[in-house]
Amino acid sequence: MDEAVLDTACTLLETSSLSVTALSVWGNPLESDAVRSGWSTLIASAHRFGSPFVTGFAGRLAGASVEASLECWQDLFLHLLDEAHRAGVKGILMENCRMGDLWKRGAWNIAINDAAWGLLFERIGDERLGLEWEPCHQVEAFVDPIAQLGRWKERIHHIHGKDARWDQGQLAQVGLYSPKKAITATLPGAGDTDWQELLRLLVASGWTGSIDLEVPKGPFSASLPAASVALEHLKECRNTAHRK
Asked: Which of 61, 67, 99, 220 is deepest in the core (most CB within 10 A)?
């Protein structure tokens, strides 16, 4: 993790009204010393950004199953949580994008679904360990995101504003394993998730976290119109949830 980048980010924030809700490092911390070090650097630097959550993939032993990676994951995350406690970091969150990983094998992340989360939180019950979650990954897996949010809302502390949309006609034609996909990643309001119900559930549970838009890849300026529409959709859903 480049300290110069962190210094630049801090300088930019000092002249803006923006707040930071999460600092994230992407990669496999069980296989990469650089990623593992990145977690520690962000934890140590979090106070400069208001001590937000530090997030990333849980990691995975290359080619191994979820179960086979648990002991190595536990050793690392107990260490990271100890660092987080000493640094006053709000929490350590695992992002649930599976990056193509399956239960029996993969190269990135074991925090991929309900069953895996159950094993992880059984191993480490620390309240500062949680999930960074987004409906997109649930829609991709044919999991009802609203029902899953209801099951795990006590552990979900940061949400990516990203959704997905299935083309049912295309799905019936190409199935799940064709190189031609029947699913498209979207922003809130353009996918299959009921964000009004999602916000209603969050408001009713007293949730105080953040939903941060994850804009599509490409030139940021080209994404701004869609992001603005998605932001207004989320605000409307939130306002409706508060009125109920």
From this structure: 61
Structure tokens at 159: 């949400």
The DSSP 8-state label assigned to residue 1 in this structure reads -
Could you please state the CATH topology (level 3) that the domain comprising 1-133 is classified under.
TIM Barrel (3.20.20)
Q: Let me know the angle formed at the C-alpha of 143 by 60 and 234, rounded to the nearest 5 degrees.
A: 100
Q: How many angstroms from the chain centroid is the CA of residue 221? A: 23
Q: Are strands 163-166 and 183-186 parallel, antiparallel or unpaired?
A: antiparallel
pLDDT value at residue 1: 61
Q: What is the pLDDT of residues 3-51, one digit of tens each?
A: 777 778 787 777 778 889 999 999 999 999 999 999 999 999 999 999 9
- Summarised one tens digit per residue, pLDDT across range 184-202 is 999 999 999 999 999 999 9
Q: How many CB atoms lie within 10 A of CB 88?
A: 10
Torsional sign, CA 24, 115, 32, 63: negative
Domain boundaries, the chain: 1-133, 160-244
- CB-CB contact of 109 with 59 (8 Å): yes
Is pTM beyond 0.85? Reply is yes
Which three-class secondary structure state does DSSP give residue 194? coil
Q: What angle do CA 200, 182, 221 make, to 5 degrees?
A: 65
pLDDT-based confidence at 58, cuts 50/70/90? very high
Q: What is the Cα–Cα distance from 90 to 111, expressed in whole angstroms?
A: 20
- Check: CB of residue 91 under 8 Å from CB of residue 53: yes
